[in-house]
Amino acid sequence: MTRRLILEEIINNIREQPETTPILALTKTYGKLWPHCEDARIEERKNEVFQHIAQSSYIPLQTNPQQAPPPFKIAILDSSFNPPTKAHVQLLLNSLTTSLYAPFTNEPVKVEFDACLLLYSTKNADKVLKEHDAGPVDRVLMMENVAEYLNEIAKGRVTKEKASADESNSSVDYKLAESRDDISNNEMSSTANDAKFHSIQNIAVGITNSSRFTDKSRALLSYCYPAFSPCLYFILGFDTLIRLFSPRYYTDISSSLSFLFSNSYTIYAERDINDKTVENEFWRGNKWAKEYADKIYRVEIDDD
């Protein structure tokens, strides 16, 4: 069975599950930190994936601080990936390798991540698949290609010059290699830099049936428990941040956000670095965003 057919089968199986049962399946992993994924060959893991889908249910994390493992920080780039672009790559790399900023104080914060995840949802609260959009299997295959190349960059196997010479990949690959080569110019110590790229060496590609972040969080917590106690950092655009705090997507926004931010943070990119009108209005007018402001960070991206 080809990889495309296997992915098709896994995606269809996930789609059939109700959103009341949040599901996560990893199709590609690098490093040995992801549970249930000692290898990345889904051909050999298909039965395991389906078994996880059948048995998946959220298990509360340990509450005894003497028993609980240290938080395992996962950066999650959640997107429709239609297709994966240079902007996706830049958003992920900047979130992993540069300072983040608190929304009101603008104080820099440095987070050292343990792993990162490219996450695709088979369902979306707003978007409907259009005629010329890439299909789910194609999107996952492209995500896997990006993850593989990011992992090569993180290990120093691809230089800026090599990426530039490969015209077929230069639109994305040059940016990746350039980020790797230029990282020594930023303000962080070499130890911190190594930690940042360490997370990319533990990159994975995942599929979920959940459209809402609360359910995506449940799926990830269920998948990771009890191997480690995850702390999730969802990376998203500003428009998605607005939707995250919009009551129209919840039956009970108070309890939903309370659960989400009990073990998650968000990292958002500015909508327009030259015009902060919409962003300022959001922070002034959304009481839920202000309530959880200490769980929200801003990442700066290049204006190009």
From TrEMBL:
One of its GO terms (cellular component) is nucleus. GO terms for molecular function: ATP hydrolysis activity; nicotinamide-nucleotide adenylyltransferase activity. This is 4858_t:CDS:1.
